[in-house]
Structure formats: C-alpha cells, structure tokens
Design a protein that fits this description.
about 210 residues, alpha/beta, 5 helices, globular
Length: about 210
C-alpha cells in the first residue's frame, strides 16, 4: 500500500557505524511532508498502514511513536524489555534530526503522539546472528560513551548486567514468554556487560 504524502525509508546498508548520519542523509532526500523510517526486519500491517494514513491527514501531532511487536524464535514476545519498546519513527520531514550513532533517537520540537497498531519486528533469526549484533552494537555504544567521556568503574560492569536481567525477566515478567523470554533476558544482560566492559577497557587502554 502506498500512503500519499509519505516517504518510507528502509535502512538496509551493511557495516554502518553511525546510524544517525545515515538516517539524516536519507531524511534530506525526502520530498514528502511526512517520513517513516523502517529497519530491514520490520514490517507494516494493513491496520498500521491505515492508521498512519489517517494520522498524517489529521495533522494532530508532528511526530508519532510506534509500538514494536517482537517475534523471537517463532514466539511473539508479550513481556520483558522488548514488549515495552516505543520508537519515534513517523514524523514530519522538518520535525528534527537523528542523534546518537547507535540506539539513535529522532529529536525535534513539539508534542509527540502514539499509534495504536504495532510495527512487526522479526529480529535475530538465529542465536549466532543475535550475538554478532550484540557484539557490534556494544562496541559502537562503548565508543560513543567514551567520546562523551563517560568514566566507568567496576560497579556497573559487575552489577548492571544482573540488574538488567532481573528487571527484564522478573519485574517485566519476561519469564512468561517461556524459553525465548529467558534467552532474550540473558542476551540483553550480556549486551549490558559487553558495553560496560568495552568502555572500561577503552579507558584502560588510554
């Protein structure tokens, strides 16, 4: 379905080291009033397409959060961290700019609405692919924090990863998603461990 007055941009480049730079470059090429950013592993549903078409006509907000629904190891995750993800992906072309090289954010002026229908997300088709992404993103995040002069101690290296697991698996009820929920909680904890460890090592190297 083609939505009038909307440019859909799918980021599918390999070896990206600054996601915001890529998104901002693509944003400058858009000619429509509204822009929607998608990743390769994300998909619109017909209901979401209709909702997007309706809200960009209403002009109630200059930007909208999209709730993302993850399917991991053939199970749709209803709990844990990923079930609470909301991403600002739909906005007017002149809303603002993307910031941060990884885990990037679209930052602009004005109130932001939220769409009801979810964006379907099918990430990490295998554990090995998941681990490769964690290794890449944790390196980019560590380098970003290093440039921002974030000085870690051993405290976050030791305590943040298990705290992240407890939050995801118990407080956010990730255990209710079965084995996929357990694996996801462990992986997100490992991501935290790698990020803080790599940041710590960058400062030790300096």
């Amino acid at each position: 379905m083609k939505i009038p007055n909307l440019t859909i941009i799918t980021i599918n480049q390999n070896n990206i080291t600054d996601f915001s730079a890529v998104r901002n470059a693509e944003l400058q090429k858009a000619s429509t009033d509204w822009v929607l950013f998608l990743d390769q592993d994300e998909k619109l549903t017909p209901d979401l397409e209709l909702e997007i078409s309706r809200v960009i006509k209403s002009k109630t907000y200059p930007a909208y959060f999209l709730r993302r629904e993850d399917t991991f190891l053939r199970k749709t995750l209803k709990y844990g961290e990923t079930a609470h993800v909301k991403l600002l992906r739909l906005a007017r072309r002149d809303f603002g700019q993307w910031e941060r090289p990884v885990h990037e954010l679209w930052v602009g002026e004005g109130r932001v609405g939220e769409l009801k229908n979810p964006l379907l997300h099918h990430p990490h088709q295998s554990i090995s692919e998941f681990l490769r992404k964690i290794n890449k993103y944790s390196s980019l995040e560590a380098e970003y924090r290093f440039k921002k002069k974030v000085h870690p101690t051993l405290f976050p290296v030791i305590f943040y990863p298990p705290a992240k697991f407890v939050r995801n698996y118990f407080l956010l009820l990730g255990f209710r998603d079965g084995i996929p929920g357990l694996i996801m909680a462990l992986m997100m904890s490992f991501h935290s461990f790698l990020t803080w460890t790599k940041l710590y090592l960058l400062w030790q190297k300096k």
